[in-house]
Design a protein that fits this description.
The chain is 4% helix and 42% strand. With 202 residues, it is mostly beta strands. The protein has one domain: Jelly Rolls (Sandwich), CATH 2.60.120. The strands form two sheets. Strands 1, 3, 8, 9, 10, 11, 13 and 15 form an eight-stranded antiparallel sheet that branches. Strands 7-6-5-4-12-2-14 form a seven-stranded antiparallel sheet, with no helix packed on it. Strand 8 and strand 9 form a beta hairpin. The protein is globular, with a radius of gyration of 15 Å. The two termini are 17 Å apart. This is Pentraxin family member. Belongs to the pentraxin family. InterPro entries: ConA-like_dom_sf, Pentaxin_CS, Pentraxin_domain, PTX_dom. It is found in: Secreted. Pfam families: Pentaxin (PF00354).
Length: 202
């Protein structure tokens, strides 16, 4: 149970990462991924990377610069421009549905204008899911200068699109529906220089 805890990625650049294990029964036609990050990086960095054998950027949350997030599904991406962070925690949720190709992006509990991405696509189920590195091959192929350094917390993955109420609940750390990956019951393995520590403040 990682309640009120964080992963601290200590080095920059880094070869460290965290492997997450999700119980995926079938391919995803809808999903929502949420997480909280705290960093002073200004270079590009990967937050959440979900790769299959055929597509290394099956799902990717990537921050190429402080005022931009990229959300990938099946190797294609949409960009969400954001205010440059005030060196504080940032909570992001990204959701996608195959039927409409609608991609939603929420930052700190607020929605951004929706965009279109990969309508009719299906996300594969046999996945390597990593925090802190971007995969260029299944479970590997890292560029150290895309690595994350800082603190990560509150990582979730659902096989549905969350309602606006639940998106806000995720930001506020309230009760959430059962998830494929849930911070309070996370199955994970640390690879390299990552330390689990209590959160410094609420």
């Amino acid at each position: 149970d990682l309640y009120r805890k964080v992963f601290v990625f200590r080095k920059d650049p880094s070869d460290a990462y965290v492997v997450l294990r999700a119980r995926l029964e079938q391919p995803l036609h809808n999903f929502t991924v949420c997480l909280r990050s705290f960093t002073d990086l200004t270079r590009p960095h990967s937050l959440f990377s979900y790769a299959t054998k055929t597509q290394s950027n099956e799902i990717l949350l990537f921050k190429p610069k402080p005022e931009e997030y990229r959300f990938y599904v099946g190797g294609k991406f949409v960009t969400f421009r954001v205010p440059e962070g005030r060196r504080d925690w940032e909570h992001v949720c990204a959701s996608w549905e195959s039927a409409t190709g609608i991609a939603e992006f929420w930052l700190n509990g607020k929605p951004w204008p929706r965009k279109g991405l990969q309508r009719g696509y299906t996300v594969g189920a046999t996945a390597a899911i990593l925090l802190g590195q971007e995969q260029d091959s299944f479970g590997g192929g890292f560029d150290l200068y895309n690595s994350f350094s800082g603190e990560l917390s509150d990582v979730y993955l659902w096989d549905t699109g969350l309602s606006p109420d639940k998106m806000r609940a995720a930001f506020l750390s309230l009760r959430l529906p059962p998830a494929l990956l849930a911070w309070k019951s996370l199955s994970y393995e640390v690879k390299g220089d990552v330390v689990v520590k209590p959160r410094l403040r609420e």
